[in-house]
Amino acid sequence: MRFQQWVLDTCFRPYDQDWLNYQQEMALRHTSLKKNKTDNAQSAPTIHLRHIVAFGAVMTDSEIIKPFLAKGHNANDVDRMYRAWSKSLWLQIALWTEPYTNAGEAPNEW
Ligand code: HEM
User: Fold this and answer.
1) Which of 1, 18, 59, 99 is the least crowded, having the fewest Cβ atoms under 10 Å away?
2) Per the domain annotation, does 8 fall within a domain?
3) Residue at 41 is within a domain
4) Quick check: pTM over 0.85?
5) CA 25 to ligand 1: nearest atom
6) Residue 30: CATH number of its domain
7) 61 domain-assigned
8) 14-31 pLDDT per residue, tens
9) Quick check: 109 and 33 in contact, CB under 8 A?
10) Separation between Cα atoms, residue 92 and residue 89, nearest integer Å
11) Which among 4, 8, 30 is the best mutation to test ligand 1's pocket, defined by most ligand atoms within 8 Å of the CB?
12) Is the CB of 93 inside a 6 Å radius of any atom of ligand 1?
């Protein structure tokens, strides 16, 4: 599943140019420019940027995320993993704003 792969990539992949290109592709796949073209997904015609930003609050909520990180780790490590996860998510959300804010791409889908 691509979402599962993305979790693994967030944790383990080097954040290099390939990763930046992959970020751009994921952003585009939430806009009408590329949405539902991969795997012929059936869903809304676009995901608005405001919904991605709002979902960021859920994906970085410590009460939601920490239980996933807690398995077999001490509280200090869980805290550090949680902070690293949250930083990465906000970085990715910042990168995903590009097609929504760039004239000529999907700026009406904020
Ligand atoms: C923090 C916000 C979000 C994250 C981290 C996230 C993560 C992802 C990832 C990793 C993929 C697979 C992309 C790929 O491999 O190319 C994906 C695709 C998708 N996401 Fe999101 N997503 C977010 C927000 C949302 C929201 C708010 C919605 C809907 C309300 C949504 C709906 C979808 C759909 C329908 C796809 C399939 C797109 C396609 O290939 O046609 N996502 N998302």
Assistant:
1) 1
2) no
3) no
4) yes
5) 16
6) 1.10.490.10
7) yes
8) 999 999 999 999 999 999
9) no
10) 5
11) 30
12) yes
